[in-house]
Structure formats: structure tokens, C-alpha cells
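step=encode ok
step=design start
structure_in=
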């Protein structure tokens, strides 16, 4: 059995079943992102990207592949798969969708639906040079180290929210991406306590 299979099975069981249609609160733009994971040696990594300074939203930020739903997308899963292929060159036939998490509402007016997925450990990337400046991987257990997180609080649509921040190397990961990673670590307690994910 390939290293990591047991972990991916457990994680899939902790996620919501993948679906295609999610209602967004009034006034918010629907978006879908792919949260790509892959087995690496005796562990699991998260694939992250850094946006260029040319994109209209979230310039220079660390992100997952994804974006706003296009009229031609069948649903937000289709959005996430399309964007992952366009931005990072991940073919949709290489993606094993494990499930979904709670949507994340941003201060910039987006309601982001994350789709957690497994991609092949050997797959390469082909970056859209307009949108993506770089792609890198982080061991998933890093995001279970809760002392790494800082946060600020804000109010959106009458609800008190937290914005998380954490540093990894030269990168500061924050906003919706950090929130998704924080939630993912909570759903994968084995990843938060061990670097061997078997």
C-alpha cells in the first residue's frame, strides 16, 4: 500500500461529501478553491501558490488554486478544478476529491468553498505566469502547530470573525488560506501530532 493511503481515507471520512452546488449569502461572490494534498516520502504536503502582483484580487498573497465561478462552470467544484488546471497545470483527471469544508467568507466580498483533494505525488506544475508567481509545498503537520498562528478580529455581516496569520519560511500565509489550513489541521488530528502519516 502506498504511504499516505490510510491518512487520506481517514481525512475523507472527516470531510463533508463533495457536492457541486453551495448557496452563497446575498451580496457575496461565489468562489471555489482546490486544496491539493499529496504523499511525499513518509508524510503529506499541502500545495500552495503565491499570486503575482498583476492579478486583480489578492495580489502577492499565498493562496490555493481557485477563483470566482464562471457562468460556464457546472458548479463550484467545476470552478476549482478548472482553475487548478489553468493556474497550476493540474489536470482534473489527476485530482481525487476527498470532500469539502465549511465555506469561508472574506472581507473582500467572497464566499469561498474549499474542496480538499489528493493529487499524484509525482505530478509537476505548469504555472500561469500572469496569475501565479511560484508554487511550493508545506508539510501538513506544520498547520497543526497551533502556536504558529496569530489572529486579528473583525466583524462582517454582523458576525465576529478571526483572520489568521502564520509564517512559513519567507512566506506569511493569512486570510482565507490560513483559515482553511487551520480548519484542515483540526479535521486531521493525526497530521497535527505526527510527521508520519500512514
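sequence_out=
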Amino acid at each position: 500500500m502506498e504511504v499516505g493511503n490510510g491518512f487520506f481515507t481517514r481525512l475523507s471520512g472527516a470531510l463533508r461529501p463533495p457536492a457541486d452546488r453551495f448557496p452563497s449569502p446575498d451580496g457575496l461572490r461565489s468562489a471555489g478553491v482546490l486544496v491539493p494534498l499529496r504523499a511525499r516520502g513518509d508524510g503529506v504536503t499541502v500545495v500552495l501558490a503565491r499570486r503575482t502582483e498583476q492579478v486583480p484580487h489578492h495580489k502577492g498573497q499565498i493562496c490555493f488554486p481557485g477563483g470566482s465561478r464562471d457562468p460556464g462552470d457546472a458548479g463550484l467544484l467545476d470552478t476549482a478544478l478548472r482553475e487548478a488546471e489553468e493556474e497550476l497545470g493540474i489536470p482534473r483527471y489527476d485530482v481525487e476529491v476527498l470532500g469539502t469544508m465549511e465555506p469561508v467568507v472574506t472581507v473582500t466580498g467572497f464566499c469561498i468553498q474549499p474542496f480538499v483533494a489528493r493529487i499524484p505525488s509525482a505530478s509537476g506544475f505548469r504555472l500561469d505566469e500572469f496569475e501565479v508567481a511560484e508554487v511550493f509545498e508545506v508539510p501538513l503537520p506544520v498547520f497543526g502547530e497551533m502556536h504558529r498562528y496569530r489572529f486579528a478580529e473583525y466583524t462582517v455581516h454582523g458576525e465576529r470573525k478571526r483572520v489568521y496569520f502564520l509564517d512559513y519560511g519567507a512566506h506569511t500565509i493569512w486570510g482565507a488560506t490560513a483559515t482553511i489550513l487551520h480548519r484542515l489541521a483540526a479535521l486531521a488530528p493525526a497530521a497535527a501530532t505526527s510527521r508520519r502519516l500512514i
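step=design ok
step=annotate ok -> Helices lie at 5-14, 76-88, 175-187, 189-193.
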